[in-house]
UniProtKB/TrEMBL annotation:
Belongs to the class-II aminoacyl-tRNA synthetase family. Phe-tRNA synthetase alpha subunit type 1 subfamily. Keywords: Aminoacyl-tRNA synthetase, ATP-binding, Cytoplasm, Ligase, Magnesium, Metal-binding, Nucleotide-binding, Protein biosynthesis. The gene is pheS. It is an enzyme of class 6 (ligase). Mg(2+) binds at E256. This is Phenylalanine--tRNA ligase alpha subunit. GO terms for biological process: phenylalanyl-tRNA aminoacylation. PROSITE patterns: AA_TRNA_LIGASE_II. Its EC number is 6.1.1.20.
Amino acid sequence: MKQELATLHAKALQELDDVQDTKRLGEWRVAYLGKKSELTTLSKQMGQLDAQTRPLFGQLLNERRQALEGAFTSKRESIEAAEQNARLAAETIDITLPGRHRDVGAVHPISRVIRDIEDIFLGMGFMIADGPEVETDRYNFEMLNLPKDHPARDMQDTFYITEELLMRTHTSPMQVRTMEQMHPHAPIKVIVPGRVYRRDEDDATHSHAFTQIEGLVVDKGIRMSDLKGVLEAFAKALFGEHQRVRLRPSYFPFTEPSAEVDLVCVHCQGHGCRVCKDTGWIEILGAGMVHPRVLDMAGYDSSIYSGFAFGMGPERIAMLKYGITDIRQLYQNDLRLLRQFAKV
């Protein structure tokens, strides 16, 4: 058995030398160190030896097993190192190759303006609300003091889905929805950014689908001076401390009195230019005191509560802020325009 052990040991070492990969190394381990290996078979035959020979053979058997395990460990480390080096060599990056250019994205100018406006009004204590783009005639018109036979409906060309469902023409329906949700609590201070739809011909200053931001404040003792103060603070925050606003009388069915709001021309600083038609002022939004009928229909007693509302177009503001002359450029996904805002 001693000679048989020596032959087995020599054979195992010779085969181990020929092993070059992890798979064959595992097979070698099973063959010579596993539970069914010849080495294990020899250890089970020790019971056949006499009492004097058995301890000596057992010691020799352990020495041979330890020697094979040591050789196995050394071979495994060698193979693993070689395989790792081969992987690293295959994955080597050729740093002499030119890098691949990747375009850097940017926030769209309309989204940028909406975020700026939201930040300004959040700082004044307003909440941000959202409403459905598919609206009912009741909320889009009737609850805003525009009954079905009202001539002012002709001011807005509407996409009707059914007689009672339509694509909202403004975000003003959220005036009523917000008051109904908040009733009877006050004050209400909310802005509503969102997409609106009208049957307009697309040109340099109009689009059939555009964004609008509605603002609403309702409380006891709200006055026109509060409206002007809020809008002037907004204009200064967005366009600079030099800004001023002026209110010109106008008409909106859901506000009374109503006004068009102008600010000092951002191009000529009020001196007069082609953009402002030499007036020094540019119209930016519409506003007014919430009509008493709108308050009453929403559940607020107009003899106790008053409020103001305003609506603005982020596209219009983006065009003024960034010097864009054609509103269609904001919707055409022209990378020549959009890349400019990656640097803003």
